[in-house]
Amino acid sequence: MRRSIKMLLALAFALPLLAVTIADVNLENSVTVNGQNLVLNGGGIRKKFFIKVYVGGLYLPAKNANAAAILAADSPRRQVMHFVYSVSKDQMCDAWSEGLEDNAPNSSAEVKGAFKTLCTMMEAIPKGNRLVLTYVPGTGTTVEINGKVKGTLPGKATADAILATWLGPKPGPGEDFKNAVLGK
Known about the structure:
By secondary structure, the protein is an alpha+beta fold. The protein has helices spanning 2-14, 67-72, 89-103, 109-121, 156-167, 175-181, and strands spanning 18-22, 25-28, 30-33, 36-48, 51-60, 77-83, 130-136, 140-145, 148-153. 36% of the residues lie in helices and 34% in strands. Helix 3 (89-103) crosses helix 5.
């Protein structure tokens, strides 16, 4: 009996480590970026027509449901995409291009150039792999695909344009996804 109670207590304390499960993908409750703890703000599923493409999670220093405030803050953040459907490099590049045009059409030449560089970093992302974009003030946005760091894109403006593809006026993954990562 005592052993059962101890096991139940251990399980109860272990459960908060997984904040949410979407489409059989577990999103961690928190991550550490550059020595700072970031919490899961929210998570959602990106669908294209009827196909579930990826489960996305947004990590911030503190929960925040205001897209404009999140974009205005110059603090670490992480976007995680766990792919539940395989995508090609071309599909990724097209999505970034459309996202920039729809959500930051008046971007500077520097930001547009960074998106072209982002496209050169893309590769096929098989089902079960992930794309992680981590912004650190003063450093830029580190791009990690399939567990490999592909490079870092400098500047907050570029980081904001990348995040705007999720939180902007025409989020590529859709309004439901935007509201989900905002924790609404």
